[in-house]
Amino acid sequence: MVTKPFLVLISANLFVLSTAVVVFGTFYPMVYELAGLGNISVGAPYFNLLFGPIAIVSLFVMGAVPFLGWSRTSEKPSIGKPVILLLVSLLLAFAIVTYSTMHYEPVGAEWSNWALFTVWVSLWVLISHIFSAIAKVGKTSLSALVAHIGIAIAAFGCVMNAEYSYEITKRLGPGSQADFGDYQVTYVDTNLYIGRNFTAEQAIIEIADKENHQRTMVATPEKRHYSVRVMTMTELQ
Questions:
Q1: CB pairs under 8 A, 24+ apart, for 184-188?
Q2: Which of 20, 25, 59, 198 could form a disulfide with 42 if both were Cys (CB 3.0 to 4.6 A apart)?
Q3: pLDDT for 23-67, tens place per residue?
Q4: What does DSSP say about strands 199-209 and 222-226: parallel, antiparallel, or unpaired?
């Protein structure tokens, strides 16, 4: 149980479980409708709820890879260093999630256990692999190290974007304003102009910090219509 093949076995079973989750979520509504029971939809909440624990366990297993050998005859792994790295990862994850919650509180940020655990295991993979590369612990290949680190970074980005990104939808016109967190957005005016191969509607939007009014930014998003290609595109400057 303290070898890489055992971790590979766990990972393979997790992939099988993930496949079953996808198959069930995809075909269950079809079977439900064919059985004459009505219409039902399976969306993001179902997949998020079931894939969350699978992803966390997978990342935890992935982080242990550098410390184990391929056979029972390999050198017995030390439990001290992995435990220390796990604790360091947990402290860093707690600090990151706490900062994100406090920093984005004006726009409704709340504490997220999903974010804490996912960031924890993502940092665990990242730190354990970097440590093993520097200290030359184990015999994990460079390609595996890079791949695992990439997965950890992707998981970190996914959960932070899911839990700590916010948006509002407002209809604004020249002279109107909207508040978003610590900022006040003012729609100043609309410019109509003709480019070399397009016509454009450009908005002038002023973004001001409520506390420090000297920190003012100007955004000029625009809609461009290319008559030759009959195409409308959005530009942000």
A1: 184/208, 184/210
A2: 25
A3: 888 888 888 888 877 777 777 888 888 888 898 998 888 888 877
A4: antiparallel
